[in-house]
Each structure stands twice: as structure tokens, then as C-alpha cells.
Write a structure and sequence with these properties.
The chain is α+β, with helices and mostly antiparallel strands and 230 residues long. It has five helices and ten strands. The strands form three sheets. It has a five-stranded mixed β-sheet, with helices on one face. Strand 1 and strand 2 form a beta hairpin. The longest helix has 21 residues. The two termini are 24 Å apart.
Length: 230
Amino acid sequence: MRAKTTGSPGLIDLKKGKIMDMFATLKALGLHRAMVLIGAVLSAGCSIFPGNLPPAPVTAATQDYSYIVGPGDNLNIIVWRNPELSLSVPVRPDGKLSAPLIDELVAQGKNPIEIARDIEKQLAKYVRDPVVTVIVTGFVGPYDQQIRVVGEASRPQALPYRQKMTALDVMIAVGGLTDFAAGNDAIILRAGDGNKQYAVRLKDLIKRGDISANVEMKPGDVLIIPQSFF
């Protein structure tokens, strides 16, 4: 479907300019995946204006969600009865970690239990019946699990997803809306549901305290906050 464009050519040009500004913001933030998703929406001929979009579901979290480790996370590795092998390590940008007796281990895309079992397998070459516990102490998460906020937020950024995270939690983290935000025209682009788009009323939620406008987020969501045209 196409965005409804009524009025003078100058107004149409202004709207196009605001869309280009949004893409410039995305590029400056390095949010390549968000740009790809939004580009796919536009190339499909769909409007980025939420007039005809369904409202975002109030509930979205799944009960079986398990945190997935990503680059930048810090892991505390505890090897029972082997303190010399226990330490805290970061997950490198390539998604791997190194530890005593472990040269390379892929951590990205796994939960802490899976990483612990993988470490046990490698340590079993040198330690009898190793028992390993992995605790995540610094949370970043893989890029495809992060919540991205772009557009007219005070501090646009990517946030690690947390179970039961809501739009209100996200807006608190990014410092709320700017003075020029069209908060009630905001869109959630949900990559985990086939790039579906949902309307969300951030102005009602933030400025008017309408808690009925609060909705749960899902891993990989992109929250797009356009600029007001007037």
C-alpha cells in the first residue's frame, strides 16, 4: 500500500526529507540490520506511517525465553574444585572466548548452560570430571536480540533485551521523546515475526500517562520514532 499524500508538493517534499533524515540517523548509529529491515518494508511498497497499522500486542514475551550470549558480554566461569581455572572473561567481537586450557570456544548464540557444557568437554582432556558453571555478569547480547531505538528519542541506541521488557522500560532507558517527536506515530518493526509492523502510542504513554498504551517488546524489535511534520 502507499502512504496517502495529500496537500501541496512542498509538504510531500518535507515528508520525504524527514524519511531521509531517519535513514541518516540509522547510518550514523551503525544500525545496519535496522536499515535493512526498514528498507525491506519500503521496497515492498508499505507505508512507514502507522495510520493503517494494527496496534502492537500488549503481551509478547515467551515463558521459555533464555538469555543468549553475544559479543561484549562478560562471563564468570567457575570450575568446581579448580580455582586456578576459574576466572571472568569477555566474549570477543568474533563471538569467541579464551580461558586456561581453552584456546578458542564459540560463545555467541548459546545460553550459559550450553557454554558450560562445552567448557566441560574441553577441560575433560585435562581435568577429571570437571563441573563448570557460567554466570553472565555483563549483558550486551547478540545484535539480532537487541532492542534498537531510532529516530526522535533523546538517546537513540541499542539495548540488551530483558524478559518482560516493555515500551515504557525502553523509553526510560533512552531518556524519553524529543520535543519534535511524533510519539503516537511510532512503529515497532518486529523481525521475529516476519518483519511485521505495529503501531504504538508513545506520546500517550509518556506524556499523558496512559498505561494502556504500554506493550511488551520482543528480542530483535526496532522501535522507530518519527519526527513531527508540524
